[in-house]
């Protein structure tokens, strides 16, 4: 029987390499023994294998002939799977992608070579000046890729010896990166430390005793453990960390997005409140103005109306003075004139009020844009998510979780994630008929007409009632009647979303995501139109109707009342409305049970409340503090109602883009509208002449111009400040230039993202082509083997057949 061909690596050696040591470095016994292992491995590979074993004999059939004839198809098994030979399977099993991670010996060999390279990095000579045997060899890779070549203990010993030559930091970093268990890493660290201590014990290193080395190592471990403990404590202090995990595990990412958005709003309000407290409220509280002649007493009704005693506090715009605040006066020198103490710094309250409001809104704008861009980057990642199911199944479990309750919570979270990922496949339905599509379009048009008609009716009702309030002013004795307009607005904002929700049941959208987006759009139109009517009512009608009065205080009180009534109605709807809706759902729809959490309505309530805060911060600087308290209470109330009265979505869906949509709605309709409202109030509306820091000016913006004129008279040392104000603030060209640069940067970023997508597509295509090349080479290998096998079988059959005589000899016989 003929000997099958074997694949052996023949490496030529130059004459100068003859008789040379395996390595030019003097690495003592470790490297020499490893070189011997390389040689033994090469001999073993040459003896054993990389041969094409003979497959069992088969009857030649059409499938076999077709495969061998084409030269591009492998032998097929009973189920259409390629039937490779034993030698081919051995070659495939020794590939790098299939070796590392299968056995611990291959891992130890690989990391041994890494430690050798790390230790030689600083003193390695140029590659051109060393012999061929010292250069990287295929035998080294052969050792790494064959985990059964040597015993595991020998590789472990070599790795421990190489780890001893590294510093403590390099050793820890190398052990951390090994794909081994914690017990194996701990054992390797102890062995390397113990043996290095034995080797350096008699002589010491740099005069240090073994006890000092042990103490230094113990201190390093203690500091590292302390750092990890502090990091864990900081993570534990994250607000509502376990509550958010519980919500996400039981109700999915769609409901969790609401609570994450509430947490984001809490951070925005805290960021807005800090500069207001530091530069406006705190300063005015430290230097209070002269008290009014008659200050009303506190009756308790102020908690709802915002008037009364609150009007004479730092709560509203009218309390702040229009003077320059100084430190306390010193003793009079020669008369009754009060003089500031030496070194007193003047504090211009009108200028501080204007600049603090502007800087607070600017910081909020930057934070919003950054949050939106970061959310876009997390939601719309470049590339595909085709392997996310396998990652969720095999890589989601956190093995550091040891307690029963966190492990159960993690199980619920993974199960919910899998439901959401698999739900995307169920959304793909077949095309509808023409009649079905016409029917769906007709229903959508009818529902949208009803919703827009409802919005128009609510808008007309708010406008008519606001005009009625102007014609019939409320006296101070009937202050409770001021709650009428906020009451009407809150009733409309509460009832209309329920009507939209009932009409949405007629549409029967295929995708739950589309259903939520449509509901958000309808609720957003309703609330933004109502707020637009109220802004016109305040700045267009109330300013003229309240001549001789402090209209800024009235606008601040109106916004306070709207916030309070919105909070009260939200609590009532959460505690009682959702409970009643649960009873109705359980009674009429026994199979479905509890109702689902209305994400669209609850999110728009948060956006509506935040818009009220931004609209009123100019007239009531403490409204962000009220919003913070409101959000804190809402979180726990909504969580309690969610657990008791709601169930998980009937059709799970992955809310990967919901946070991006929420932040975008918060930025563009909400923040942008509030910024336009406040800019109009600052630049165009005349302030009240009896209250506030701008009482003597034509507009609030004139406070900056007055300050610039004072700087021009102050001297040449501060002349650059008026120049900046004249050419960078009042001139519109820098604004247009900055806008153009911003648009250019956005365009370039879009083009970069497109280029990355194209590169990723090309790389994916290249990976696919390389996979096809590998299949082609394996099939070619089988074709060569089949050809040689057929020729061998043919020669054997010819040898076994008896020799035949020529025809003339047969005739002669």
TrEMBL record:
Compartments it resides in? Membrane
**Region (Disordered) location:** 1-28, 58-79, 791-813
Provide ranges: composition bias, Acidic residues.
14-27
Which domain of life does the protein's organism represent?
A: Eukaryota
Statement: the UniProt record of this protein carries the keyword Transmembrane helix: yes
Q: How does it sit in the membrane?
A: Multi-pass membrane protein
Keyword annotations: Membrane, Transmembrane, Transmembrane helix
Give the record's GO biological process terms. intracellular zinc ion homeostasis; protein stabilization
**TM helices/strands, residue ranges:** 215-237, 258-287, 351-371, 441-463, 483-504, 516-539, 660-683, 733-750
The reply on keyword Flavoprotein is no
Q: Which GO terms describe its molecular function?
A: mechanosensitive monoatomic ion channel activity
Q: Which GO terms describe its cellular component?
A: endoplasmic reticulum; Golgi apparatus; nuclear membrane; plasma membrane
Q: Where is the TMC domain?
A: 550-656
* Family membership noted in the UniProt record: Belongs to the TMC family.
Stated name of the protein: Transmembrane channel-like protein
